Amino acid sequence: MTWYTLLVLAVAVERLAELVVARRNAAWTRARDGVEHGRGHYPVMVVLHTGLLAGCLLEPLLADRPFLPALGWPALALALLAQALRWWCITTLGPYWNTRVIVVPGARLVGDGPYRLLRHPNYVAVVVEGAALPLVHSAWITATVFTLADAVLLTVRVRCENAALTRAAPA
Questions:
Q1: Residues linked to residue 36 through DSSP beta bridges, in sequence order
Q2: pTM score
Q3: pLDDT in tens, 9-33
Q4: How do residues 48-80 score in pLDDT, each as one tens digit?
Q5: Backbone dihedral region of 106: left (phi > 0), alpha (psi from -120 to 50 degrees) or beta?
Q6: 59 in Cβ contact with 65 (< 8 Å)
Q7: Over 90: is that where the pLDDT of 167 sits?
Q8: Which residues contact 158 (CB under 8 A, 6 or more apart)?
Q9: Cα–Cα distances in Å, from 163 out to 92, 103, 159, 167?
Q10: Cβ distance 136 to 80 under 8 Å?
Q11: Fewer CB near the terminus (10 Å): N or C of the chain?
């Protein structure tokens, strides 16, 4: 459980790094008349993602979940690939990336990196990580609850993003 705890803590530190980048990028986009959309769902997203990390640590302890190599190692590989995809998205979007939905009116949509393949590759990373990270240590309840709750949240989030991007995109 020690190495898994370190893994989850490393993901938590990574999330804090994302928030630092997001804050810097928010200032950059707001300085260019960026407009925030979907403020109402943002606190729900924070609670859900915090709950994922807490569940990853609590479920294996409280339910005495073992590390199952046949499940844990592939789940770890998927969780690491999700992190790589997440940072590919962040670096591709540069100052336009954010944990919030902030768009600069008139800015062109980014079509490079993973965005040339998918419209929302960052959410592929979220979905994969949300299932894989808990399963590294057999936390299947956490994986299931997060996945179901995140499906609802992502429905709202993707609609919000698509609408904001459509309104802001140049004609």
A1: 102
A2: 0.89
A3: 999 999 999 999 999 999 999 999 9
A4: 999 999 999 999 999 999 999 999 999 999 999
A5: left
A6: yes
A7: no
A8: 120, 123
A9: 21, 11, 6, 6
A10: no
A11: C
Name 101's bridge partners: 37
Beta partners for residue 103, in sequence order: 35
Provide DSSP, the chain: -HHHHHHHHHHHHHHHHHHHHHHHHHHHHHTTT-EEE-GGGHHHHHHHHHHHHHHHHHHHHHTTPPP-HHHHHHHHHHHHHHHHHHHHHHHHHGGG--SSEEE-TTPPPP-SGGGGT-S-HHHHHHHHHHHHHHHTTT-HHHHHHHHHHHHHHHHHHHHHHHHHHHHHS--
Amino acid present at 48? L
What is the identity of the amino acid at 170?
P
